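Same chain as my last thread, 289 residues:
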Amino acid sequence: MRYTSLDQFVTQNRAGLARGPIAIVLVEDDVEVDTTLRHHLQTGFAHVLALMPASFDLPRDLQETVHRIDYEASLEGATEKAVNTIIDAAPGQWIFYCYNAEYLFYPFCETRVISEMLAFHTEERRDAMLTYIIDLYSDNLDVHPDAVSLERAHLDRSGYYALARPDMEKEGHPKERQLDFYGGLRWRYEEHVPAARRKIDRIALFRAKAGLRLRADHTFSDEEYNTYACPWHHNITATVCSFRTAKALKSNPGSKYDIETFTWHNSAPFEWHSRQLLDLGLMEPGQWF
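reply #2:
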């Protein structure tokens, strides 16, 4: 069904949002919109919300299976506004958010639906899950000038690192169980990426509650949501495999002509399978086997 505004959707579906998990896909352009939506439908989300410009079209099968909401996702602050609106409308539900041409992968996702993983994560008394944004890019920019190709997708198999996240309220001390993660295209082409946008960590999976707010830097107002693990052992982490940075670097006039190829000696074809991400250490199963 199509809605002309986010407010209309929330008003008409408040009862339906009592069942989760919920996926929010913020559509910034017309690249791989249908594959993004189908991927998250297949992952097992109870509701998939497509927040997209009114001028965009959707295939008929997706018109019947996703909630299509007219929305300008590319505007400043649009992400926080959308996510926070759904938080208020669906307290207690698990929510995931991403952009078009981004794909959620979690341990064993080929055989286990998202609700199974979140049930285990909930049993571990966790209300949020750290995800790493793993950049995808085509290995041939002559054939794919926007850097997007599902068949020729590559990723960096190394070059990722973490730094302590400073606590502004405790000068000289880092925040407990919080790190800033870097790597991928934002690290290799950092001269073209504003410092505030170089991190690759995002709390993309979380459980809504009253008063919770997503901030502009992809962190939450509740600091425990921003932690990578509980105090007593490692928890599950997931990845969001994303063409978003590659698209931006090849569409921005300041970087478009400086980049002839994204491939380097640490590039590897993306296998579209969680096993590859686990083997590369880009996510971990924690205590979930």
